[in-house]
Amino acid sequence: NTVTVGDEKIELSKNEYRILLILMENKGQVVSREKIMEKLWESESFVDENTLSVNVNRLRKRLAAAGLDDFIQTKFGVGYIIEE
After folding, report:
1. Three-state DSSP class for residue 11
2. Which has the closest alpha carbon to 18: 52, 65, 64, 61?
3. pLDDT, tens digit, 9 for 90 and up, residues 5-51
4. How many CB atoms lie within 10 A of CB 39?
5. Cα–Cα distance between 9 and 28 in angstroms, integer?
6. What is the largest CA-CA distance in the chain?
7. Are 3 and 12 a contacting pair, CB within 8 Å?
8. Are 39 and 22 within 8 A, CB to CB?
9. Between vectors from CA 29 to CA 13 and to CA 54, what angle results, nearest 5°?
10. What is the dihedral of CA 19, 69, 10, 16, to 10 degrees?
11. What is the pTM assigned to this prediction?
12. What Rg, from alpha-carbon coordinates, does the chain have?
């Protein structure tokens, strides 16, 4: 699970990669936290919402290290978006 930014390859965890993929597939649209959680954890078991926040924050740090600051925007009370 890698993403390439310029000449730099960034290793991502499975969940980080899946979050980025979901957001890129919906570029320009706000994706709700619930929708992301449903796609990441398809089982009926309860997953704490904080788990999603931790994964998004780790992904943001990895992207920022490659020069993509503020690539993933938070829409408070709604979800996340990658602006076009």
Report:
1. strand
2. 52
3. 888 899 999 999 999 999 999 999 999 998 998 888 876 566 777 88
4. 14
5. 24
6. 40
7. yes
8. yes
9. 30
10. -20
11. 0.89
12. 12
